[in-house]
Write a structure and sequence with these properties.
Radius of gyration: 13 Å
Oligomer: single chain
Structural class: mainly beta
CATH topology: Rieske Iron-sulfur Protein
Strand content: 35-45%
Strand order of the largest sheet: 1-10-9-4-3-2
Helix content: under 10%
Number of domains: 1
CATH class: Mainly Beta
Number of helices: 0
Number of strands: 10
């Protein structure tokens, strides 16, 4: 039997305009919250290759290009799209909860 997940509220949906991302810090987590045509996705904000912030990266479709070295990740899956990145970025199960917040389940 799996352990129950913890839900962490991050922001209101209107805080993230379509096609953009914002950075959220919650406890020890620093996250990027993306809005792709009204669907919300959350990844770690720190690029796995260097000190780049994914919430400050260039978003095209469902890909975010790191602002530091131009490596890219799939926002939906965390998979590496473009080197020099080699390690996928952590993604989180994301929901809009009953209180109207974009939240993650961990």
């Amino acid at each position: 039997m799996s352990a129950p997940c913890e839900r962490i509220a991050l922001c209101r949906p209107e805080a993230v305009a379509t096609g953009t991302a914002i950075r959220i810090e919650k406890g020890k987590l620093t996250l990027a919250v993306f809005n792709l045509d009204g669907e919300y996705f959350v990844t770690d904000d720190l690029c796995t290759h260097g000190p780049g912030s994914l919430s400050e990266g260039c978003i095209e479709g469902d890909t975010v290009e790191c602002d530091f070295h131009n490596g890219a990740f799939n926002i939906r899956t965390g998979a590496v799209v473009t080197p020099p990145c080699m390690v996928p970025v952590q993604t989180y199960r994301t929901v809009v909860d009953a209180d109207g917040f974009v939240a993650i389940e961990i």
